[in-house]
Every structure is written in C-alpha cells, then in structure tokens.
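Peptidoglycan-binding protein LysM
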Amino acid sequence: MFEVNLKKVVISTIAATALSAGAAAAQEACTNYTVVDGDTLATIAIAAYGTSNYQPIFNANRNTILNPSNLEPGLVLALPCEDGSLPNGQSAQDLIAAEEARNANNKVSNVYEPPIKIVTGGNYAPFADEDLTGGGFLVRLASTALNRAGNNREFSASFVNDWSSHLDTLLPLGAFDVSLAWYIPDCSNRSYEWSPETTKRCTQFDSTVSVYDTVIGFYTLPDSDYATARSFEDFKGARLCRMEGWFTHDLEENGVFEPNVTMIQPVTATDCMDAVLTGVADVASFEVQLAADAMSDLGLSHNDIVENPFVNTVAGLRFVTHRTNPYGRQYVAMLNAGLNEMRESGEWYAIISDTLREHNEKLMAASN
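Structure:
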C-alpha cells in the first residue's frame, strides 16, 4: 500500500452514447441484468450509472464473475441500487443493524486479552479515512470481524499516513499488531523472479484471506495498438505507467516487467493518465475506481482514454501481521473466521456499500 490523497470513488456524468438504445434501456441500476454478447463491465456501468467505474458491480457479483474481462452471455448480474443495496434485497443499513443485534450478546472471555492494535492510513477514502463512519470500510470490516464467528476481541485503531512505516517499522517492532490493508502476491508462485518488495511481503508477513478484490485495468488512447492487446505478451515493448510506491507483482507474474516494458512511475494516477494523453506513456495501469476518478479530474470521457477490454488483473487487499508477532497467526485466524461469516451473512457487502454511499454523498455535497 502507499500514502495517497485521491478520491477513490466518484459518480461521474459520462454519457452512454456509445451504447445502443436497446442495450442501454435494459441496463438500469437496482435491477438484475442478463449479459449479452459484446457486453463488458464498463459498458454496463456506463449505461446503468453514467460512469465507467464498474468496481461496485464487481463487488456485488464477486462470487459469479470469474474473469472481469470475459463475461459469458447469459450471466445474470445484480446491478446495485443507488444506496448500495441489491435489487429486491435488504438495505445495507438494515442488514448491518440486524447483524449487530444478532451478535449483541456474544460472551466475553473471563481471561484478560489485550486489545488488538490496528494501524491503517488516513486520506484513503472510502477504504480508510477518519472522516467516514467507523474509519472507512477497511476499519469497519476488521473491527466487525473481531466480533463475529465466536470472536469477541477489543481493539484500537490508529491512522499513520506513512504507509511504508507500517511494514518497515511499526509491525516489525511490535508497535501494532495488524495493518490494513495490503496487496499480497500469490506467494506459492515461484515461476518468476521475485522483486525485493515481493520477497519481503511473502517472507516476513502473514496475511488474511482477501478482504476486498479490486480490478486493475490497462488504459490507452483509443487508436493505440495496445488498446486491443489480447494478452500480457502484447504489452511487451510498451511504456507502462503505474505510480511510485505501488505494487507490481501482478505485472511480474505475467511477464510485464523491465526490460520487457519500460516502467514510468510518477506520483499520482492523474499523472499517469496525463502521460498517456501526452504520449509519454503507452499504457496506464491501476484500479478501475481510481481510473474513473483520475479521468474525471482531467475532464476526460471514456472516449478519450479507453480501458483494454481483454486484459486486466484482480488484486486482493489483505490484513497483515508480522511473523515476529507471537500472536500474529492467531489474529489472522480470528479475522479470517469473522470475514468468512460476514461474507455468508451479507454483512461484508453491506458494510462496503454503506461506506461507498456515505463517501459518494460527501463528494456530491462538496461539489455543490
């Protein structure tokens, strides 16, 4: 993870003119939609919400979407309502309240157990931000997981915006027990040469199951040869932009690393999009949520910079502990148990969608 000060979710006003009238009419928020040939998550999002950010659709259908770049015709997708709830489903707020009531009488152990010390970074809305309810959805998910699946542990949550210090200093020295949250490689995959950062994350830390899966897109000019690349092999020779401090293990796993590509690493996602616009970079690659925000900041539409429809990666954010922490694996097991129960009950999705709703309301209020 890295320190960032960008809005992560934005409801833009991109028009859906690229879609046929018939397709657009069938793709509406708060309905179930059946995929037809030629659909992509981006085109469905543009028709239903007026934005190319399809991460909320991916969140709502995580168990049925196997490959974000290859939707099978006939697949039925739930298109979330404006408040984040699912079509014909319980609202996020009602589901959260019901789960809180159901777990209100969990027994507390008679044995004293110190509060688990959690650290995350601020200004990373909606993921982690002190101005959001519960500190953003990462903190809400972690704190709730510690009180689900038979757990009943107290915790403290702190915000340290120097993200690198979490892994380099704070966890190794025992100042904190758990850091929220990090992209962790598939550490069982030794088919490529690990970078020093990948080596550190795989050998020094233990991590939970994926807490939140994000789609990482690849963005180019519409007339670029890379706009229709069919595989990662087709990106070789490109000048690829991903921000300084970001993970690259998804690229490494697929052979997209120097000298196969030339990496350009500015500070912000907006810088990467500008690099594509000005010809400094051929491809920009990062989260689809952040891409929609960066394009909005630059006043761009989905016709100015396009997402490659055939190639993307999915990266999972995880909670991590340092292997020198004698209770680290116990905390990971507790969090995993709580998170798994929350996914089954729907509370996991409810917390995320409720935080996204709150964050979007703040963004719209600030823009008025």
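The two ends are 31 Å apart (CA to CA).
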